[in-house]
């Protein structure tokens, strides 16, 4: 699955298994599975990394670190997604410097001591055959503050010297080195939501008059150079993503005559990022100004992923934002709007989203979420998927036989009662008539009893087949 696997083969039982949760049992069309799988469950290869499906956990700040260290909270929080079928989990905005964190409780990667715990988390993700990503971030004018829900206004962008700019770019490069040592498969640079890299892009926040401000070329310079310095440290076989706020959602107005950063600028920037070695743009929006007007609706940001994907040759895109339903997510992919879907709220509310999506889209997928329920390795994938279909069918057949048995028992009772009543009235009925009715009843009882024997045989055979199938699957 991943570009790097754990070096300790005994670390987790799951590592020994062929499938990870959320992987299609038969990911490609075959003789037994001629219809193409929903795109959501088809693997995606980006450079040296093959993702088992196209669903990612979008980065989510958890405010659960001290001094930047990941904790058991992060192990459980990140790990649970991979036990439930996500192909890629991108860890939260992670400060490349202490002053670049949003809050004192945000995750960091500015010193080597941070690596060890991150390594453990990555190892667990890999054990579940998922890929691990980390979002490298500097929060700029939103940094070193309180929790976001307490923040009332945006501070002005600080005038950073050229030295300071170089230092921050160096911090990103060093963070990439540490991410590599921790074993991450993907780096995502956070250039969205009004944080530092976005601050330089947006004319709303960027008021510089030097080579980093003013024209489009100048405003994108900081990000492009940062990408370049990260790419130098990040191996060629590992994917690099950039999250953009594709638009600021701020139209020209009295307060901002020129308006904010636009979709057209994002397309042009994405094309430059492609030539700098960026593989995927994760298409978010907003965060620069309280004047933003966001037309919130299901999938409201998807069209930006589609625009960049369509206009920038070879650039993959991720769609994110109010994608909450399996069919909706798969449609985004099937209709060519994006290459991956990033999920955030829905994963917090519905941890089994991926496994349920597999069921609702009719994809036999691995749901071996705990040791002991592994998909059998001695069965061919197609045999395993057929058994999975067969077992519920056998159960339904068994239920039907059960109700036939009940009806048969009721009929026998009725026949017995009729026979008794017939006997009681035998004195009043002429012998020939009584004789033929009695014979009919006797014949019916014999037939019912034969049916009963046949039913019993069928049930025994069904039980045997069920036991065999179950044993195969549990092996
Ligand atoms: C609790 C929480 C924390 C978030 N933290 C980050 C973050 O660290 N970096 C980031 O780029 N986006 C962050 N986001 C935004 C999400 O990644 C995502 O883009 C957004 O929630 C929209 O997706 P959704 O509609 O599936 O929730 C966060 C969202 C939530 C709900």
From TrEMBL:
Pfam families linked: Oxidored_FMN, Snapin_Pallidin
UniProt cofactor(s): FMN
SUPFAM superfamilies for this protein: FMN-linked oxidoreductases
UniProt entry keywords in alphabetical sequence: Flavoprotein, FMN, NADP, Oxidoreductase
Region (Disordered): 1-36
InterPro entries noted in UniProt: Aldolase_TIM (IPR013785), OxRdtase_FMN_N (IPR001155), Snapin/Pallidin/Snn1 (IPR028119), YqjM-like (IPR044152)
Signal peptide boundaries: none
Residue ranges of domain NADH:flavin oxidoreductase/NADH oxidase N-terminal in the record: 40-359
GO molecular function, one term: NADPH dehydrogenase activity
Name this polypeptide is given: NADH:flavin oxidoreductase/NADH oxidase N-terminal domain-containing protein
Organism: Coemansia interrupta
